[in-house]
Structure formats: structure tokens, C-alpha cells
Amino acid sequence: MNALLCISFMLALPTQSAEQNVSLQQSPEIIVVEKSWIKTRRRPGWDRQIILIQDPNPTNPVRNERIRMGRTIEGYNYKAKVKNISRKTVVLVGWDYTFTDSESRKTTSHQFYTRIKIGAGKKKEIAQFTRVPPTRTISANSIIVEEVVINYIEYEDGTVWRRE
Q1: Contact, 160 vs 147, CB < 8 A?
Q2: Is residue 17 in a domain?
Q3: How many domains, in total, are found in the chain?
Q4: Which tens digits make up the pLDDT trace of 52-85?
């Protein structure tokens, strides 16, 4: 009986998790001021950025494709101007650029992580390039609704915010 009481007491004690610096607030402390996308061409390596092709669709033919340096490729540049409304400096933003077909309610989402330093109260543009188009199919009489959703924020002090 004493052993059972001792075990149940130990289970009732609070435990420290590995991610004790995670905040799960409803709204992020970054607001999206503007958003846009454009079809473009680029030459990998000229800007020294790593190009990540991120598409959740496993049947996508460009998924995991290795892009050779110097070859011009066509793709899409997704951008969002954001404002840090917290009191802390942001160092990483995880965000989705989503497109929703108003008729079929089908949503296409592009997930990105951008390492960028945004001071408290400052605005900056986050942008990512991918070969994946905004959406693969649309209805002739539908309206496409665009939205940028902030899912993850990492701060300079090591704390993070994550959407529930």
C-alpha cells in the first residue's frame, strides 16, 4: 500500500519538459502586413542561398530534385512583409503561404522556414523560392483566397512560439 501511495505521489509531481520555453499562445507576435507571389527565373548559386523544394505531395516530380548550379530554373517567389510586435528579437519564422479555392474549398499550402533577424517593433520581408506553383488546379468560376499563416517563431533568447 505504501509503495502504491509513493508511486501515485511521484506521478502527481510536475515534470520538466525538454521544451519548457515553448509558448502556445493563440496569436503570434508577428503580424503580416503584405503578401505577394510572382513567377520568376533564377540561377541557383548566384545568391549563395540554399534552395529547398518543399512540397507535401509525394507524387510531385520536382520533390527532392537536385538543382545544378548555374542552370536557370523557373519557379515562384513567395513573399510576406511582417512586423514583430513582441518585445523580443525574432531569429526564425516558420510560415505557410496558402491558397484556398472558394468553390471546392481545396487548400494548397507552401511551408517555409526563414532565418531572419527582426528587432522588436520592426518590419522585414520574408521570402522563399520554390518550383512548386501556387495551386495545381482551379475551377473556372472560383476565387482563390491567399493567406500567410505564421506557425513558428524562434526568438534570440532561445524561447519559441508554436501554433497549437
Answers
A1: no
A2: no
A3: 1
A4: 445 555 555 444 444 445 578 899 999 999 999 9
